[in-house]
Amino acid sequence: MTHSPLHLDRLRLRHLRLLALIDEHRSLRAVAGVFKLTQPAISQMVKDLEHAFGVTLVERSARGVSLTTAGEIALQRARSGLAAFDHLAGELHADHPPVVRIGTNPAVMFQLLPAAIGRLEACSARFRFKIRAGMVNDMLDELWDGNLDCYIGRVDWDRLPQRMANVLRHDPLTETDLVLACSITHPLAGRTDLSAAELLDWSWALPPDGSNNRTVFDAAFRNHGLASPVPTVEIAADPNALIMLARHEHFLICIPRNALDSHVLKEVVCVLDLPDLRFPPIQIGFVTLAQNEAMTSVETLRQALADVAQPTARMD
């Protein structure tokens, strides 16, 4: 089956919504009920889609219908497109500058992203920003589904499905790394003779088990033949809360170095001196879908981030 440009021109938004409903209901009769159409009409819509793309998208069986592998790929891209249309419709009805929907990791909020937004404000760029901070995989899923225009943070390429990696556009911005830290009044603060084993005797506040930073943290201790510390407190995607626990409750913490890159924080929290316990660098990048690259708002933000990241290409 070859794809047909003529059939592509005849497709409507409801054809794209059709895939999502088939995936949800697994029944053409149920989908017909949602669309308030006959089942033969829904079958014809499926044929229109398959002729347009030149591949089989829906598989029929005695148990109903399901998407083929090609259908699942088409569904993911369709969701992104539908979300973009919904976002566009909202913007066109609002008498405000366009919104850039940004996903990020909380540590990026300490310096990099605020500096870029400040730069755009100084240049009188007419954009508004809707920012969501969360776990890496959650943010990339939101980008993939079309609920975000871009993502700023780390990317674990080995954990990404290949179909997602193929359509992402990544621009490296800067690097940071994980550090162990404590309050400047903690008994370990300022010591230069610390060993990894000694840290096991103290109370810890850490990211949750299974998170990227926790995995790296645990591996560093195992590489020294040690079991990793068991935290008293676990907090997901919130370095600011970890810093507050270190400052006020004397917990040891593990956070990205750039989260401590502040003159105010350096007066209350310090990095532990542990030359034998090093963590690999974390690359911070700007990520968007290939289809979003041409958006003026996305490109303008990308350039602003690149400009403010250059002076601190490595945050040591």
From TrEMBL:
One Pfam match: LysR_substrate
Domain HTH lysR-type: 11-68
GO CC, any one term: cytosol
InterPro entries: HTH-type_LysR_regulators, LysR_HTH_N, LysR_subst-bd, WH-like_DNA-bd_sf, WH_DNA-bd_sf
Protein name per UniProt: LysR substrate-binding domain-containing protein
Keyword vocabulary terms for this entry: DNA-binding, Transcription, Transcription regulation
Organism field: Microbaculum marinum
Protein family according to the UniProt entry: Belongs to the LysR transcriptional regulatory family.
Gene Ontology MF, one: DNA binding
